[in-house]
Amino acid sequence: MDKIDGVALEVLQKTEWVAIALAGPDGPHVVATWGDYIRSLGIEPNKLLAPAGLFNRTEAMLKNDPRVEVLAGSRAVAGENGPGKGCALIGTAELQYEGDDFAKTKAQFPWARAVLVIRVEKVELQL
Predict the structure, then answer these.
(1) What global pTM score does this model have?
(2) Which one of 30, 33, 75, 81 is CB 3.0 to 4.6 Å from 50, fit for a cystine?
(3) Residue 101 to residues 49, 80, 95, 96, 104, Cα–Cα distance (Å)
(4) Number of alpha carbons in the 13 Å side-chain half-sphere of residue 78
(5) Residue 13, exposed/middle/buried by CB under 10 A (0-12, 13-18, 19+)?
(6) Would you list the DSSP string of 46-76?
(7) Helix or strand or coil: residue 97?
(8) Per residue in 44-95, pLDDT tens?
(9) Structural domains in the chain?
């Protein structure tokens, strides 16, 4: 699957929060954001947006390696063996400080200093 649709979209529509993993020289780094934040900015077939308040370490790491993996899950979505389904969204990310995505983010989240733009290249269902 190479876009956010079907079950993956349902998971994102029902998840409480998402984890965003990056690779760095000192090992993995994980940040998180609320599912409501991502939903309020709109879920596109190949793009997610998340407001960035701090994300200082994330910002430094993305300069060296833009690859990310986003993990989301919800018990409200039926899984293969019971309640709960998850998905991994694999792609690249960057922090933007201007432009349309930033303006939309700043309008909804005045505290945001940037918007994390995640470009999804691959979607893997889990659970």
Answers:
(1) 0.94
(2) 33
(3) 8, 36, 10, 8, 5
(4) 2
(5) middle
(6) TEEEEEESS-HHHHHHHHH--EEEEEEEEEE
(7) coil
(8) 999 999 999 999 999 999 999 999 999 999 999 999 888 899 999 999 999 9
(9) 6-126 (2.30.110.10)
Tens-digit pLDDT profile for residues 16-48:
999 999 988 888 999 999 999 999 999 999 999
CA distance 75 to 78: 7
User: 80 burial class (0-12, 13-18, 19+ CB within 10 angstroms)?
Assistant: exposed
Q: How far is CA 64 from CA 26, 32, 52, 93, in A?
A: 12, 20, 18, 11
